[in-house]
Amino acid sequence: MKSKITNPDLLDALLPEFEAGCRRFTPGGHYLDALQKPNAMYVHDSINKLTEDSLITVSGGEYGCDILVYATGFEPYQPRFPVTGRAGRSLSEEWDREGPCESYMAAMVAGFPNLFVFNPPICPVNGSAIPGIERASDYMIRILSRLQTDKLRSISVTQRAQRAFNQWVQSRMPHMVWSGPCKSWYKNDNGKVVVPWPGTVLHYYAATEIVRWEDFDLFYENPDEKYASFGNGVTIDGFVPNHFPWVHPPTDIQKPERNMEPASRVLAPPSNVLYRVTSQVLHLLGAWSYPGEPPVKS
């Protein structure tokens, strides 16, 4: 800004006193150029009232205008339609400017079963939001897979888990740049930072590497048949699959050197002997086409 703004008064009015990053970065180069055009005027004042063809500021200045663009920010988490959870809980109240404004792992909200959300409070929007959305999608799919496979009616984050998660979040926020003395949409009306994940996007990737199932309430379609998804005891590969997970091709066979006496040749380890015997048995059963070679998936 110091290199782009030539007017000292304009620089003094625009140059922030807080750290870079306290507010979300925006591509502001052209904006700074536009403010210094001959047909632009910067007025650091509040609007008192509007007339038919002008606006009047608190200090009494009057400025003629044809169009007034009212751009003072937005509400990041106010749903535009009612979302009601268990016990009549309202997501609009949970996420208003004075509410707790919390979520769990940037994907779900306690008390709202089967609700998955992108970019809720505390989400990885540091830099580009796309990698965080992709990772959140992967996390949601893993939970949805359990929902479908085990025939669950619903999955819901417990209030206790969400509270503990957000306690950790707020314990880290004082160390983050967006907790600085600026006014931004990262914060609610009480100054609590409610938007960004308290770390890097890579950190979010690591944090969602596993699903902490102990943090969820799982409700089954039939609680007496929790293991119905185990089926009839046979996998979809059948009795004679193309691959056995406990049989691995040998990787430690030592080939004998040339002109070496047969008696001094290195014997294959017992594990490879077991591999060859197993492959011969599978070949006789018709499960292995070529003895001595690993099976090939069709």
UniProtKB/TrEMBL annotation:
State the needed cofactors, names only. Answer: FAD
Tell me the superkingdom of the source: Eukaryota
The protein's matches in InterPro entries, at most eight in alphabetical order, are given as: FAD-bind_Monooxygenase_sf, FAD/NAD-bd_sf
Question: What keywords appear on the UniProt entry?
Answer: FAD, Flavoprotein
Q: Which Gene3D superfamilies match?
A: FAD/NAD(P)-binding domain
**Entries under PANTHER family matching the protein:** FLAVIN-BINDING MONOOXYGENASE-RELATED, L-ORNITHINE N(5)-MONOOXYGENASE-RELATED
Regarding protein family, the annotation reads: Belongs to the FAD-binding monooxygenase family.
Instruction: State the name under which the record lists this protein.
Output: Uncharacterized protein
Species of origin: Penicillium freii
Top-level taxonomy: Eukaryota, Fungi, Dikarya, Ascomycota, Pezizomycotina
